[in-house]
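Researcher: Please translate sequence to structure tokens.
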Amino acid sequence: MGSQMMTTIVTACATVTVAVATIYYAISTHKMLNEMRKDRERPRIVGRVKMILTPFIAELNSKIAALERKAYCWVHDLRRPDKLVALEARYPPEIKIILSDLLREFPHIKEAIAAHNRKIEELQEKLSQLDQVIYGEKFETKCQVLFDEFNENAEEGERLPFAHREAPTYLVSFIIDNFKELPQSHKYHKFWEQYGNSLLKIREEESVKQKITEVEEASRELEHIVKLLKDKLEQLKEQYHHEYNLSPEELGEPDTAIITRRI
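Model: Translation complete:
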């Protein structure tokens, strides 16, 4: 009876040992395969983070700052705000291939970027409508009169050339962005210092005020969408950072982002 019990105990211990060894082997194999998978995928993930996520997040930070200041950098001739374009607009085709791969895997990010771009288009249209309300024959005439007056009284080195051709396109942008002053290095600094307050009163006209209200509403909606998208991209970047133990260089921080912005 004792011998039979001992045999049972030994058999049970052996079974447990085999089970533990099997589990350990399975865990070790899974871990090894996971590490092999990470090694294979690492270059692709680094490309995603360094060339897409980090630059996109930087671009969104720039947009948030511009929207908070209502600094659209409107360009009359292009009919668009220089600071606010579709997220992937500045990227070369080879980068867009990496982006397409990421968006196939994360459709929720694809939809968030699409929502961002749709709202950008809406804000561009509202800004264009504001431009059209301000810019017209009357506005051009007013600008010509002011520039003639400025050049007549300015010292020779401060006179502005080609005023009648270019002035209105610059000034409508200053009015839309509500510039209180210009940097001293700007060629229109002296002119705006003298006539800026007068021209900004155009913003108080009823038809212009209505369009400004529409622009600001679209701007707030875009800012909300931008912040949500930024959160999604930051979460994915953080996930990759921990999962693949990415270095600062692999993360594309702080000096390796591929976009150079014009301020």
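Researcher: Any highlights?
Model: Confidence is low (pLDDT under 50) at residues 30-34, 256-263.
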